[in-house]
Design a protein that fits this description.
- The chain is of the alpha+beta class.
- The protein has 15 helices and 18 strands.
- It has helices at about 15-25, 80-90, 130-135, 145-150, 210-215, 230-235, 280-290, 295-300, 320-325, 330-340, 360-375, 385-395, 410-415, 435-445, 450-465; strands at about 30, 35-40, 40-45, 55-60, 105-115, 120-125, 165-170, 175-180, 200-205, 220-225, 250-265, 305, 350-355, 380, 400-405, 470-480, 485, 500-505.
- Strands 10, 11, 12, 15 and 16 form a 5-stranded antiparallel beta sheet that branches. It has a 4-stranded antiparallel beta sheet with strand order 3-4-6-5, covered by helices on one side. A 3-stranded antiparallel beta sheet has the order 7-8-9, with no helix packed on it.
- Helix 7 (about 280-290) runs antiparallel to helix 10 (about 330-340).
- It is globular, with a radius of gyration of 24 Å.
- The two termini are about 25 Å apart.
Length: about 500
């Protein structure tokens, strides 16, 4: 696992932080392994007819972890006031939470309120169906105000929540140890208290190769993903365990709500596009036809993931975009025909620069070679991740590698990437299409799921036809797990659920 910079859920913006926060804290609702919204700190909820008001009925048997800030050092009971405080804190400029955007232009003034100790009200400005999914995000973890106020910015090193594990110690860049919360409120189906494990140790390594060697020596119980330099040793080209590993370790694979893509800047007013062939839809479509995604998956990914031959929305979501949206299959003849239409049979095409990060350089080079075959010259430039984020956020990259992991299980999260009123993130391509915006706004107001799903698919098709993106593949969660680890499951958000895991002696 890569390093963790904070244990404050207000900053849980990447997988490492989300995984840690999920062990320490709870949210009002959770996403189960089938991506359904299920009760957590809230036992039940009601939605008003106008879908602007949500009333949550909270559990009354939940306590914060013991902490010296509380009287006698004993964790106090969690109430609706804590929920209102925690959610308000995300929107507070003083917190500077990386999750502040989740409530942007959505929550009414004084929209978070405690009616009594076990009843919390959320008030929206306009209907927003995915709000329950947003409340399941780690940003929305419930924290006690006393502990946050005592430690201020240093709350990142003194976490206190209601989750199945509590903080023990953290040596930054080396290891994090969490211990069982013996006052945890959840029980298994047989009435036995959770969690089963006494403690969790998270180890941090600078590179995946060291991590894999540690796993191979039995020093780690599981690893997420696999270093490219080892994947051929462990996996066949079709993505199964090689014979020599069978019976020694277990391979868990699962649909992952993450789409890997190349983005193309669509803002024609941007000087970057002044003389760029990327301005032309025919060229963008040609790029899509020229890449053999199936080959890319087999040779570079050992079939971990699915070639993205539909829209932007990956498999695993109820709208089933991957079944109904028509994307691009490998067709170099069609790519050449489109380039001819765009006039590039009579004049040379300028070189296009593709920005990527080191870990995806092989994928960018693979695509560049295939684009060259149809007459599109691409120069791959490898930059630091932080620089790529800065360039794409400021519209200073015309052609770039990107990925979008779902924040919550709803196709709206992917469609928000193309809504013209959204800044970057999420609209890194600066895509603008009035017809798309109308459908997007309509989908937000729709109460009927099947109507909304149909709208998502229409939007996805519009984007694919305009081609401001080149979807490459829909990702897959891959875990290598030791044989003594029991009951470990992933869901499509790759949320690490450890409260039900046990180790076989």
């Amino acid at each position: 696992m890569t390093g963790i910079t904070s244990l404050d859920p207000a900053f849980a913006k990447n997988q490492s932080l989300i995984w840690a926060a999920h062990q320490l804290y709870n949210t009002l609702i959770e996403v189960d392994s089938n991506l359904n919204m299920v009760p957590s700190l809230a036992k039940s909820w009601e939605v008003s007819d106008d879908r602007l008001s949500y009333i949550f009925h909270l559990r009354s048997d939940v306590f914060f972890h013991d902490n010296e800030v509380f009287p006698g050092g004993k964790g106090r009971k969690m109430t609706a006031a804590d929920v209102a405080y925690s959610l308000q804190r995300i929107t507070d400029k003083g917190t500077a939470s990386s999750g502040a955007w989740i409530f942007n232009n959505r929550i009414a003034t004084n929209g978070f309120s405690a009616i009594d100790d076990t009843t919390f009200r959320l008030q929206l400005i306009r209907p927003f169906h995915p709000i329950l999914g947003i409340l399941s995000m780690q940003y929305c973890s419930i924290v006690p105000h006393e502990v946050v106020e005592r430690y201020g910015k240093d709350f990142r090193r003194h976490p206190c929540g209601t989750g199945p594990f509590r903080f023990k110690f953290w040596v930054e860049g080396q290891a994090l140890v969490l211990e069982k919360n013996s006052h945890y409120w959840e029980k298994d189906s047989a009435g036995k208290p959770l969690p089963y494990l006494d403690a969790i140790k998270v180890s941090f390594f600078d590179n995946k190769a060291t991590e894999f060697l540690q796993f191979r020596q039995g020093k780690l119980s599981f690893v997420n993903d696999i270093d490219p330099s080892f994947k051929d040793e462990v996996l066949t080209k079709s993505g199964d365990l090689r014979k020599q590993w069978e019976g020694k370790i277990r391979l868990h694979k699962h649909v992952y709500l993450n789409t890997e893509y190349f983005g193309i800047l669509a803002d024609e007013a941007n000087p970057l596009l002044k003389d760029s062939p990327l301005r032309l839809k025919a060229v963008r479509q040609a790029i899509n036809y020229a890449i053999n995604r199936r080959q890319l998956m087999m040779y570079l990914r050992n079939s971990i993931g699915v070639p993205a031959e539909a829209g932007m929305v990956p498999a695993g979501l109820p709208s089933q975009n991957e079944r109904f949206v028509k994307g691009y299959q490998y067709n170099p003849a069609k790519a050449r025909q489109l380039l001819q239409q765009a006039g590039f049979d009579k004049r040379p095409m300028p070189v296009i620069k593709l920005l990527t990060v080191a870990i995806y350089a092989d994928m960018a080079s693979f695509a560049a070679r295939q684009l060259e075959e149809v007459g599109i010259k691409v120069q791959v430039e490898v930059v630091q991740k932080s620089l790529l984020l800065e360039l794409t956020s400021q519209s200073n990259a015309a052609f770039f590698r990107g990925s979008w992991m779902a924040d919550y299980p709803d196709a709206e999260n992917y469609m928000a990437m193309f809504y013209s009123k959204n800044p970057a993130p999420p609209n890194y391509t600066r895509y603008q299409n009035p017809a798309f915006d109308v459908l997007y706004e309509k989908a937000l107001m729709t109460t009927d799921d099947s109507v909304r799903y149909a709208l998502y698919r229409q939007m996805d098709q519009l984007v694919i036809d305009d081609a401001p993106i080149v979807p490459l593949f829909y990702d897959m969660v891959i875990h290598l797990v030791n044989n003594n680890v029991m009951n470990m499951h992933a869901n499509a958000l790759n949320l690490l659920e450890l409260k039900t895991v046990s180790i076989k002696k």
